Amino acid sequence: MNAGHLDMGHGEPPVSGPIPQTDLEQKLRHREAAGRGDPCSPEVMDCRASLAMTGLFMESAARQSMQSDPTPIHTDALVIGAGPVGLFQVFQLGLQGIHAQVVDVQDQAGGQCIELYPDKPLYDIPGLPYSTGRDLTQRLLEQVAPFNPAFHFSQQVSQLSRQTGGRWLVGTSTQQFLTRTLFVAAGVGAFVPKELKVDGLAAFAGSQLFYRLNPAERFKGMQVVVVGGEESAVNNAIALAEGTYQVTGVTLVHRRDVLQASPEALERLAQLRASGRITFITGQITGIETQGERLTAVAITTPADQTLNVVLDALLVNQGISPKLGPVAQWGLAMARKQLSVDPATFATSEAGIYAVGDINSYPGKKKLIVCGFHEATLAAFAAAAYLNPQASGVLQYTTSSALLQQRLGVKTATSPPAG
User: Given 121, 299, 304, 319, which is the most exposed site by the fewest CB atoms within 10 A?
Assistant: First the structure.
């Protein structure tokens, strides 16, 4: 093992070869050729961030297509949580030469920033006087892109056990990981959709009952009922009605006739209702109808105490999300007030090789701020590097002057030593 560089072990190799040129790449080159190539300009940043996110999601999809393989993925680092702190943890590990696998229960990166406030303003991110949850996520995805992290979305870690040799066996419902270090960046817990509680409905989960739109292609040729009155429900109803999914009909159901969404979305919804492409019903689903093993209709009780039977092929529930601590509490790690206790010098938990960063941890003086999570991720990465390679010099290097760090970042090409 070379000094200052960690052995990547048997970690899953990144997707090889360049990502095919896309319209985004052409757009970026056009802007640069037109003299708008300032790397800090909003136009170029939007293009670069979108390119990074697209590439990472392509890699994620390629890897998840192999999720039926029961063989554990060997890795030096596994990060639980793809929110801002989890993503910055991946970046800091990359600077240390440690490749990371990332697991998140959501179907995309961003954590709370995407799930709760994607378009709300953030004013306390260093170097960004103004940002949004969506913009911050895109920038972080661009920042981690040089390290080719492997994302595993829509998976929740449920099992954790120490193996001989000090590794940790970590399991989801579809994949296992054998990792030397584990970083819990799960925020306030896993964000899970709020369930629709109707007798007998749960039996259709995954076949006709869904809590997320994607993949939207599964609704092709279907009569879809969307439940909810917030942004996600409105946007999903609009997407189904005017997208290329060829649904036969869309009905939006909410308990009140007041919907909470952007003015643009509400205006578009009104247009689609007027054209008959979306039907809106005020009421609550109180029962279901079935035929054999198929869900055929839902019973909707209106404020006037009338019952409407609405025929459907699929039910998409978007009633919001709520955080749940989940299996973390059963892993045997020391906790205080439902948070993982850590050493503030290293952010190590009570178990060697496991670190906790972000809102999931607790220590004296803890502040639940994104910027504090970035600090925690930095120190945790340094601690993990020392844990994985105790013989390393540990000399602090700077991205402004270190050829090694710049090489890892892909901003400086490694040169061969002079001959002779």
Answer: 304
In angstroms, rounded to a whole number, what is the distance separating the alpha carbons of residues 392 and 299? 66
Q: Is residue 14 part of a domain?
A: no
Distances (CA, A) of 54 to 50, 51, 100, 143, 190: 6, 5, 18, 13, 24
Do 58 and 132 lie in a common domain?
yes
Cα separation, 351 vs 181, whole angstroms: 10
Kindly report whether the global pTM for this prediction surpasses the value 0.70.
no
> Cα angle at 209 between 203 and 213, to 5 degrees?
155
Region class of 164: left (phi > 0), else alpha (psi between -120 and 50), else beta:
beta
Residues 32 and 105 in one domain: yes
Q: CATH number of the domain at 256, please.
A: 3.50.50.60
Q: 361-362 and 339-341: which strand pairing? A: parallel
Residues in CB range of 284: below 8 A, 6 or more apart = 253, 255, 300, 301
Give SS3 for 44: helix
In-domain check, residue 416:
no
Taking a C-beta distance cutoff of 8 angstroms, is the pair 60, 164 a contact?
no
Handedness of CA 183, 185, 189, 194 (dihedral sign): negative
Digit-coded pLDDT (tens) for 345-402: 999 999 999 999 999 999 999 999 999 999 999 999 999 999 999 999 889 999 999 9
The answer on 175 and 249 residing in a single domain is: no
3-state secondary structure of 317: strand
Structure tokens that stand for 351 in this block: 């178990």
Asked whether the beta carbons of 41 and 118 are under 8 A apart, the reply is: no
- Out of 284, 300, 319, a domain closes at 319
The residues that bridge with 230 in the sheet, in sequence order, are none
Residue 13 lies in a domain: no
Whether 123 is covered by a domain: the verdict is yes
Q: Please tell me whether residues 97 and 151 are part of one structural domain.
A: yes
Using the 3D structure, point to which of 287, 319, 351 is the last residue of a domain.
319
Q: How many helices (H) and strands (E) would you count in the chain?
A: 9, 22
Number of domains in the chain: 2
pLDDT digits (tens, 9 = 90+) for 161-173: 999 889 999 999 8
- Here the tokens at position 66 are 């192999």
Same domain, 112 and 229: no
Cβ atoms within 10 Å, residue 102: 25
pLDDT band at 67 (very low <50, low <70, confident <90, very high): very low
- Domain residues for the domain of 279 are 195-319
Kindly state whether residues 98 and 43 are assigned to the same domain. yes
